[in-house]
Every structure is written in C-alpha cells, then in structure tokens.
Design goal:
Helices cover 40% and strands 14% of the residues. By secondary structure, the chain is of the alpha/beta class. Strands 5-2-1-6-7-8-9 form a seven-stranded parallel beta sheet, sandwiched between helices. It has a two-stranded antiparallel sheet with strand order 3-4. Helix 4 (127-153) packs parallel to helix 5.
C-alpha cells in the first residue's frame, strides 16, 4: 500500500510559495488531455516553465506567469510543446534536450502518459494491445526516468521525479491484469531508482493521484460487468461526484516537489479532495488511489 501524504503545510504562505516555484521548470508527459493536461494548466498558472509532450501534440492555451525585470513585465513564456511517443527513447531524449536548451534545466519530471486498455480477461486480450500497454506504461516510464536522472546527474541542484502510479498497483482487479501489473512495475522501479539516485540529488516518487474523472474513467464506467466485475463501484463514484480534481492533484505535486516538508517515502497517495456533499467512497478503488487519468 502507498504511504500517507506528508502532513503539515508545505509552504509558509502565498509569498513563500511564489518564491519556491519561481524559475522552476517541469516536464509532463501525456499532457494532451486528462490529468496531464490538468497538471500542465495548474503548473502554468503557478508560474512554472513547462515542457509538455504527448503522442498527440498538447494544446495548452494557458501561458506561464509573466516575467518581470526591474519591475517591468516583459511577457509571458509559453510552454515548449511537442508530439512525442514516450516509447521512442531518442525522440523523448531530444525533447528533453530542447526543454533544457530553452529553459536551462528541468527541476520536476512527471511521467504521466499511460494506458488502461485492454480491459477484460487477459487470456482474451490482443497480444499487440498488451505489448503496446506495457511499452507505454512501463518502458515509457523507464525511458523518462533514465533521461531525467541523467540530466540531474549532470548538474547541481537535485531534481524530483514523479511517476504516476495507481492503487491498482497494490490491489488486483479482475479485468485489469495488464494495468495492475504495469502499475506494480512502476512502483517497484521507482523504489529502485530512489535508491540508485539518492546520492546524485534525485528524489523519486511513485504517486497514486486518486480517482480523477477523465476519459479513462468514462471508459471504465462504459465497460460491461462481464469484462470488469467492479464497474458498479466506479459508476457509484460518478453519481457521488467523489473525485480528485486535476488542480488538487497538481498542487499536491508542487508541494511534494518544492515544499518545505520533503519526505523519504517513495510510494505516496494523494489524499481525497474534500467533497462535503458527496457520498461516502467505497473502500479499495476510491479510497486507495484507483487508476490515474490517461494522458496521451
């Protein structure tokens, strides 16, 4: 199971938050939609400089906070965006190099790109679909991790790696064999990288963001019970409106990366966002992290 989120305020106040985030650079993969697009928008509003990639070119209209020099506003910096398939190591490395060339460094790397499909008994799955799933969810995360860790080793100042995980990495679900297996792999590879790179200034975390209502959740709810027996629980969550919003998740990642209370724990779960009018979440999928949103 994931460890609870660090308690206590991460920033002393709004001014301290602005100072902590000033000049920071983040990369988000799978940033064209879902959680990835939500992270990108919140990071931009917080003033981070951004490199955003996805298999289909991200279309983020929000610019980063305006730059100021001697009290004068010089202009806002648009993110660097590109269509990149995370299973193409050279393309992903070239994208990282372009971000570094433009902004000077990368402080936070979020491996968010991921797939849920295939849903259903794995014995009935298309082998090509399974191979693509493992390539994106595991190899793509490894490639991003390798590239960012190499960057952090080559400069001073450390860095923070966030690999988006899921409660499904800790709890099995009938119909999600590939997804459960890939997210369990993400958890364990992140733990290993945390050990390998601690001496080089890299903090690595596998973060389950909780349930975020995006296209992936819609696909889950549309699945026949014969292929995913627990679909009723996810439909009830939709009726209850008991989801974490992308800004809620994004702010927790900013706190984790740049707040004053760092943690030595690798596997973490974003706490449930308060919803006073929402019904009680079922145990397991809702409270335990569930699948993250897909962002391609």
């Amino acid at each position: 199971m994931s460890d609870p989120w660090p308690s206590g305020p991460a920033f002393a106040g709004p001014a301290a938050r602005r100072e902590a985030l000033s000049g920071r650079v983040a990369v988000v993969t799978g940033a064209s939609r879902g959680l990835g697009a939500g992270l990108a928008a919140h990071f931009a509003q917080a003033g981070l400089r951004l490199g955003l990639c996805a298999r289909h070119r991200p279309d983020l209209v929000t610019k980063t906070r305006p730059r100021a020099h001697d009290g004068r506003i010089e202009g806002a910096e648009p993110p660097l965006v590109a269509p990149v398939d995370v299973v193409d190591f050279d393309a992903l490395a070239d994208f990282a190099a372009a971000v570094i060339q433009r902004f000077g460094r990368i402080d936070l790397w979020v491996n968010n790109a991921g797939l849920l499909e295939p849903i259903g008994p794995v014995v009935e799955a298309d082998p090509a679909e399974v191979a693509r799933h493992v390539a994106v969810n595991v190899t793509g995360v490894l490639y991003g991790t390798m590239i960012f860790a190499g960057h952090v080793r080559g400069r001073t100042g450390g860095g923070v790696l966030v690999n988006v995980s899921s409660g499904a990495g800790s709890r099995p679900y009938s119909g999600w064999a590939a997804y459960c297996g890939s997210k369990a792999a993400v958890d364990r590879l992140t733990e290993a990288v945390a050990l390998e790179e601690a001496g080089h200034g890299l903090r690595a975390h596998a973060v389950a963001p909780g349930l975020v209502d995006t296209d992936m959740q819609a696909a889950i709810r549309a699945t026949d019970e014969s292929r995913f027996p627990e679909v009723a629980r996810f439909r009830q969550l939709k009726r209850d409106g008991a989801f974490n919003s992308p800004p809620w998740v994004a702010e927790h990642l900013l706190q984790l990366a740049f707040g004053q209370h760092s943690t030595g724990q690798v596997r973490l779960r974003v706490p449930n966002e308060p919803h006073p009018s929402a019904g009680r979440r079922p145990s397991g999928a809702g409270a335990g992290g569930g699948p993250p949103s897909r962002g391609r």
